Amino acid sequence: AERKRKVAAVIEDVEHTLSTPTALLRSISDAMVSEMERGLRGDIHATLKMLITYVDNLPTGNEQGLFYALDLGGTNFRVLRVQLGGKEKRVVQQQYEEVSIPPHLMVGTSMELFDFIAAALSKFVDTEGDDFHLPEGRQRELGFTFSFPVNQTSISSGTLIKWTKGFSINGAVGEDVVSELSKAMERQGLDMKVTALVNDTVGTLAGGRYVDNDVVAAIILGTGTNAAYVEHANAIPKWTGLLPRSQNMVINTEWGSFKSDKLPLSEFDKAMDFESLNPGEQIYEKMISGMYLGEIVRRILLKLAHDAALFGDVVPPKLEQPFVLRTPDMSAMHHDSSHDLKTVGAKLKDIVGVPDTSLEVRYITSHICDIVAERGARLAAAGIYGILKKLGRDKMPSDGSKMPRTVIALDGGLYEHYKKFSSCLETTLTDLLGDDVASSVFTKLANDGSGIGAALLAAAHSQYA
Ligand code: ADP
Ligand code: MG
Known about the structure:
Largest sheet: 6 strands, mixed
Helix content: 40-55%
Radius of gyration: 23 Å
Shape: globular
Order of helices and strands: HHEEEHEHHEEEHEHEEEHHHHHHEHHHEH
Distance between the termini: 74 Å
Structural class: alpha/beta
Bound molecules: adenosine-5'-diphosphate, magnesium ion
Strand content: 15-25%
Oligomer: single chain
């Protein structure tokens, strides 16, 4: 009974500190909007960098020819080639391959990482079949999706600001990532030109717009999280160049680094952040994204094991190991609807090393998954709501006109595979917008839109265009 009381007390405390009442979400979205504005002004203390992407036109559908794309994101990288057939034929042919990044390369040298990527790309190019056509005498062209914060200096160049998501490579910060990749391709004897350097959010936005004209923003919920959207060029005070003819500029918000005293930061978040590769940074990302959700659950279970003997008198040693509980496992436990929570039991056995768990312990574990996933999904919804506010699409037009259709493209393994996460995000967004507005706002899975999007942007900025 004493143990039960302790367990209940810890859970109650966790529920309380991780709770996200709607009123709190509203103030978080307001804080998000003001950080966006600060970032657009160029305030160096803004937590949202609001990076200018040099993408002032999104795909039209007229793009034509053979293009490659390379997506370096988190756990995997993908190579892709696409044959674009213009307005009528669209994507004529498409092939891709996914390669996982050996963990040691994520913390090694920049040259090793880029050599590995260029080698895989080169192998992929070698398998190009007859259904792809490169006109005589032309160089192959590539859109490079690079999902880390970059200070873009043109559409096809930019320097790395910092690594995130478990990457930590010496010497790469401040370097031009396109020139690093190009040098590695040369070392491989691969003749290819990078004509577009894009963030994955920007690629997803481009890929989303290609299939739906009303896409105005793209959100990534994968290993990390980020968002991009189409801003009015005259709403970017820090932009000193000529105003683009389109009057638009795509902004990469880098919202993962959003920080606000409104965020419900718990002791678990603080400890995880403190022990991370990038303490003090990417605070919003650490509360939301796939790299971290399972780890937060682990930390809560560990506290329950320590303070309330959840798994018996000894704390399971495996539970002490950072990142043993991965988000896909958390998701599998969370979706377990069997009467005896069989999957939860199996995961606790495999991952935590506790062979026999009571139904009660399984329920508690599942409940913790729910608390952590729900907080992440609700915080992500608050961010999307913030972007809609910034765009003035969070309420009915004041002149009584019809609400424009608004589509948000979403991608990333977390959003795609964690159903309870994505449905909570959607209900929360509807709740924040209200039914009237929500009936004109749509979320859309843009599955690997960033690859196609990067190829489309490579096409739009082709040296032969
Ligand atoms: P990246 O973000 O690395 O570019 P993805 O978009 O494919 O790659 O996202 C991969 C991430 O998505 C994984 O790190 C994991 O956190 C999360 N994820 C993948 N599958 C699942 C799943 N079944 N349930 C929950 N999260 C998942
Ligand atoms: Mg990705």
